Structures are given as C-alpha cells and as structure tokens.
Amino acid sequence: MKPTAHASGVALMLAGVAYASWVLGGWLNPRGDIRDGYLSELSAATQAHHVFFAAADIVAGLLVVLAVLITVLSPSAPGSAALRRLKPLPLALGWLFLGMFGAATVADAALPMDCAPYRDTTCALLERSNHLSVSHQMHAITSSLAVIGAIASMLALTVAVPRLRPAGIVLAIIEIGAAVTSLPAMFGGQWLGVIQRVQVATVSVWLVAVGAAIVRYRAPASQRRAALIRAGPGRQIAADRTLVHVVSDGTGSPAVLLEPGLGGAWFDWDLLVPLLTGQHRVIRMDRPGPDASPHAAGAMTLRREADRLAALITVLDLAKPIVVAHSLGALYAEAFARWYPTRIGGLVLVDPSCEPDARQRGPVRRRLAAWAQAAAPALGAVAGVTGLARVFGPPLRAKAMRVMTRSVTAPGAPEDVGAVYGDGRMAASVLTGLIAYRDLAADLLRLRAEQPFPDVPVVVLTALGDVDGDGAARHAALACQLGGRQVVLPNARHMLHIDHPDTVAAAVESLQVVR
Predict the structure, then answer these.
(1) How far apart are CA 515 and CA 502, in angstroms?
(2) Choosing a second label site near 455 at 20 to 30 A (CA), which of 45, 180, 260, 391?
(3) Of 35, 17, 44, 62, which Cα lies nearest the Cα of 203?
(4) Distance separating alpha carbons of residues 450 and 440, to the nearest angstrom
C-alpha cells in the first residue's frame, strides 16, 4: 500500500473518531437533553464547551474532504487502486457524496445554532418567529445536506465495492431508518436526541469502515497481474529526476533508441524491433506519464525532454546511438541533437511533426498553458478513478489505429492495451502534449537559429496516406535543413513504423553506411 492510499484510509478513520465527539456531551454538558434535544445544541453559541464540539466536527469534515481529494487527485491513492472496481459510476458518486458530507459537516459547524431551542423556551419562541440569525436558520440546511451525503455515499459505495457490502447494507438501513423517524420525532418533540445520536454514530462507524477497508486493502491477483503488464517486459530507470520505462532487446552497436510520439507505447514498435535486434541493441522508451513511466513534474519543455533523453543515454551507457523518433518525438530528438551534438550517431524521423510557421504564445497564454499542463495529471487521475479511462481509452486507441495505419491488427496484446490506455495517466500524457505542442514547435524554431545541427546522418520518412496539403514539402525542407534525405511513402499512414517497419529498418541501416 502506497503512502497516499494509506493516508486516505487513516484520514477517514480519524474523521469517524472526531465525528463521535458527541459521546463526551453527557460529561462536558450534563444539562443537555440527551433524549429529546437536538444533537447540534452541543455546538450552540450559548452552550458550555460549544467550541470543542464545533471544532471536532470541523476537523471531521476536513479530514473527509482531504481523503476524497487524495483519492481523486493521486494516481496511487485508493480511488485508482484500493477501491477501483467493476462499477465506476457508483464509485465516482460514492466519493462525490462523501465529499459532499464532509463539506456540509464543515459548514454545519461553521454555522452553529444561536441557542438551544429544546432547552431554552425563549430560544424556541425566537426560532418559531424567525428572529434568530441566518447562521441558525442555515444550520438546518447544512445538517440535511450532511445526512443526504452520508446516506448517498453509503448506498453508492456499497454498490461499487463488494468488500464494503455487508457493513454498508446494514449501516445504510440504520441510517435511512433514523433519518425517516427523525421527522415525526422532531414534530412530536420526543426522542429526537436519541435518533440523531444513532444517525451520527452510524456515520462514524461508516467512516471507520471505509478507512479500514482502504488501509487493509490488498489488490486481487488480476489487478496485480495488470500492474505487471503495465510495467511491460522492461524496467524503470531514473533519468533526470524522472522514472522512465524502457525495454531493451538484442545486442550490437550502434544502439538504436526508439522515441515515441504523442500517446505512443512500447508495444507500438513490436513489428520493427525484430528487424533490428540482429545487429543492434534496441531500446524502447515510454514518455513520462503513460504506461509505467510516472507523470513528470513541471511543464513539458524542449529543454526538459532533451535533458531527460541525454540522462537516459548516460544511464544506459549508449555510445552515440541512432535515435528513431516518431511524430511529436521528433521535436525532442532534434532538440537533443542540437544541445548534445556529440551524444548522437544518427537520426531517423518517422513522419515527424513539422511546424515551420509556429509562433510563440504571449506571456499570459503561455502561463495559462503551463497551468493547464499542471492540471492534466489531476484530470487524468479523475478519469482513472471514475473508470472513464478504462471505458473510453482502449476503444479510442483502436479507432486511432484504424485511422493512422493500414494494418488490420495493431500491435499490442489486448491486456497490454487495456492496461496502458485504460489508465488515466495516458489521458494526462496526451492532454499535456496537446497543450504544450504549440510552444514546443515554436521553441524548436528559435533553437534552430541559436544552435547548429551536428554533422550526423539523417533520414526523414514521410507518410502521405492520411494527410492533405504540403506535408511532403515541409518534410523535404526539414531534411534539407538537417543535411539529410527524405523517403516518401505515398500509401503509408502516420504510424509508419507499423505499416512499413521494413522501411524504417532500412533507414536505420543506411545511416551506418553514411557513418
């Protein structure tokens, strides 16, 4: 269990304890009406020790909200591991309503009753004549929202999480029964205090039960196998303060480093790798964010991506590898070659992204784009927690493959595709790349004016089967600018290394002749 998941469970258990502060009411406030009075009268402004009871409720509510935020925003938290099950919509609703309960509990304590109407006749008369403060009047609304949130979370999480089902059913029945009987008790003026104490005690037990389930959780064998699949056949390597997932095959020199494009995964290169491993050590890397590479902190920049590539080459002890870069990865590979001219032996650009007219965003828009990038991991985590990534990710990848390849069967076993593209981290990675794309392209144009390209062989492979316009002309100009040559494949589509892996392999071998 990772620390964030453990923290979420502990926060809920502590919230359950804090929410039970009312049990001290008989000792701290012995004059209270335990049988008939409002439980909220303990926090009324005129009552002894009201600050203590209000503070306990605020702490309980904040801990619940904290647990929900950890679950939603952290990929390693229980929303994406401990409580991710077969029913994503009830799960999402369960956490939503639990957060509603926490927020309403904070508001309930922050808007206390002015006085105790069941104990003070004057207070009761003022309440009936609406002469009390807005805080006193709003207290009934916040209390109702807290009860609704608690009941709804019990029902939704009980449906979503089988492990919570036995306790959840019993507690939900008790809570609903107490809520229904509290209405006649309120109007009849008897037993309301007892009923409300049953309600609050039930919620306390529920919070502790959910927290304990999270802390004690152990992923089932199927999820543990999925985690191993997600890691692929390779390993994670620390490169420039970021863990990068790499897969190494074959032996020989020079090594070939495969740089993916936007939303690419290690298995996209499956058809190319066997054509190279006879003479080369072939390294497949994953972008930070998707697959087993954690999302990198900070905004995506050319400098950061080039430095990470250089760090990876150093850790793997690669001597002037040939870099094969697809699509958006071509921007990073060219920037790496310009900043680290002695570290690269050749460059094959596979249908590269090419924006000769890209312009810099203004300072304000660039800052907004950086903020949007910073929010992408959280949005990806939400997609993972709610199950949206699992529902839509693999089908969207299949649709993209149908558009960008002519292959009947795209590479990647179904379980690998499901594990990678059903993870919210892939959605976050794609969103980050889309947001950063314009700035990356503009930064590369500026870099070209500042840093010369090294004297290394270059091949630009152009696919024309799924594009219109001047794509071939742009690539021809890019090849000329880099001192390389262009190979045009009229019928190939963007995932050229899937449609024509032999052409990519031939381009790699041709660089050795030039060398």
Answers:
(1) 20
(2) 260
(3) 17
(4) 15
**To 5 degrees, how large is the angle CA 121–CA 122–CA 125?**
90
Rounded (to 5) percent helix, strand, coil in the chain = 60, 10, 30
Whole-angstrom Cα distance, residue 497 to residue 483?
23
HEC letters along 428-452:
HHHHHHHHHHHHHHHHHHHHHHHCC
- The whole-angstrom separation of Cα 358 and Cα 446 is 10
Give the tens place of pLDDT for each residue, 6-29.
678 888 999 999 988 877 766 666
Cα–Cα distances in angstroms (integers) from residue 214 to residues 71, 96, 127, 149, in the given order: 10, 17, 43, 20
The answer to whether the beta carbons of residues 232 and 247 sit under 8 Å apart is yes
Q: Around Cβ 307, how many Cβ atoms within 10 Å? A: 19
Alpha helices, DSSP H only, in 30-78? 50-73
- Measured CA to CA, the distance from residue 417 to residue 205 in angstroms comes to 40
Cα–Cα distance between 101 and 57 in angstroms, integer? 11
Tell me the average pLDDT across 193-203.
83
Phi (first) and psi of residue 460, to 5 degrees: -110, 120
Taking only the tens place, the pLDDT of each residue in 145-181 is 988 999 999 998 888 877 787 888 888 898 888 888 8
Minimal CA–CA distance to 499: which of 470, 473, 461? 461
Helix (H, G, I), strand (E, B) or coil at 242: strand
Alpha carbons 329 and 323: distance in angstroms, whole number:
10
Question: Could you say which DSSP state residue 354 is in?
Answer: -
Chain-centroid distance, C-alpha 120: 52
The alpha carbon torsion through 61, 196, 201, 96 (nearest 10 deg) reads -40
Confirm if 57 and 102 have CB atoms less than 8 A apart: no
- Output the CA angle 105-108-113, nearest 5 degrees: 155
Please state, in angstroms and rounded to a whole number, the distance separating the CA atoms of residues 5 and 132: 44
Query: CB within 8 A of 254, min separation 6: which ones?
Result: 280, 319, 320, 321, 322, 345, 346, 512, 515
46 φ, ψ to 5°?
Answer: -90, 0
State how far the Cα of 185 lies from the Cα of 240, in Å rounded to an integer: 65
Strands (E), 174-285: 235-239, 242-249, 256-259, 282-285
CB 336 within 8 A of CB 476: no
Q: Which of 81, 106, 113, 353 is nearest to 224 (CA)?
A: 81
Give the span between the Cα atoms of 497 and 501, in whole angstroms: 5
What number of other Cβ atoms are within 10 A of residue 468's Cβ? 6
